Amino acid sequence: MDSSSNLTSLPEESFGEEEQLQHQSKETSSAASSAFSSIPNRPPIQASSHKYSPIGWLGYFDQEDDIHIPDSNDVFHLYKAGSGGPVVFCLHGGGYCGLSFALAASKIKEKARVVAMDLRGHGKSSTENELDLSIETLCDDVVAVLNTMYGDTPPAIVLVGHSMGGSVAIQVAAKKALSSLSGLVVVDVVEGTAMASLIHMQKILSSRMQYFSTIEKAIEWSVRGGSLRNIESARVSIPGTLKYDDSKKCYIYRTQLEETEQHWRGWYEGLSEKFLSCPAPKLLLLAGTDRLDRPLTIGQMQGKFQMVVVRHTGHAIQEDVPDEFASLILNFISRNRIGPHGIEGRTLGCCSRSQAVEEDSYVWHRRWAAELRSKNKGEHSLHEAMMGNSDESWWW
Question: Which is catalytic among the residues 77, 162, 263, 315?
């Protein structure tokens, strides 16, 4: 099938409601005089193209940089912010880019450094094999970038990964390749639900909009389609997920996820156990309790990690509620006493931190159990409960 035929799949009229309303207003004002003719016209509605126009990254990050990996042709693009404290090293999800953390970075940089990386095949990074998104290659990329940046004297690193990036963060931590790893934050990815969703992903990818006449249309579609709920964040991050196709004379996705299916299972197999085995302080941020699988439920009850369920948000927590996300990251750093060179007072603070995590675990488990009982109102299995979410694309 000629792919160019899909160019018509984004009808202009579907995104021209504002213009239609203004046109109708003009027609009404020119109608015959009536009892209502003295009522002034309402202010014009903001034009769609302006409402969804791109925003540059400079208002959020301080600088961008390219890291050339020695003995290769791979170049990874980074966005940086902040000048002191530990380094919050951010890894985006599949199909996103480093700008996914822009709004949150503008808050985190007040007390920590932020580095957001465009992973292989994403954003402005350039690599020899753009489709090699195997978990081994992605992990090697992250370690290579950090080693190239900091050499033998790395600062304290807090790895933050969203969705696919969360899988990479966990796998890097499990390899124990970072001597200065001081914290691990995983955003809305759980092995059980991700693995169960794999069979649906090609259908989901093929059903999304593929071609955009302008960047504004892509931003608008991402917000109206529900993948992002924060217009400002979408205006910053979406341009970095697109590229212009000269042959089709339109914008398409920078990352062709549908061509990387062979790597998907490797992203998530064994993820929960690897997460639980990481010795560094751990935080799991979820958009809903039904995302938690059995190993993590048990681990949470045992106090092995801190968990926060972020309400009223979609899958991209860092984009939808960036202020809350930034506060959670900074609280995690403060709570675990992570300074620029590592965890301060590790021996003296160990017991108090462990007790605090266990207390959080107990309180959360009581609340989660009550919600689960209320939700199911029957003898449904834990598997049925955690598979109740209809948003099958959440784990990207």
Answer: 315
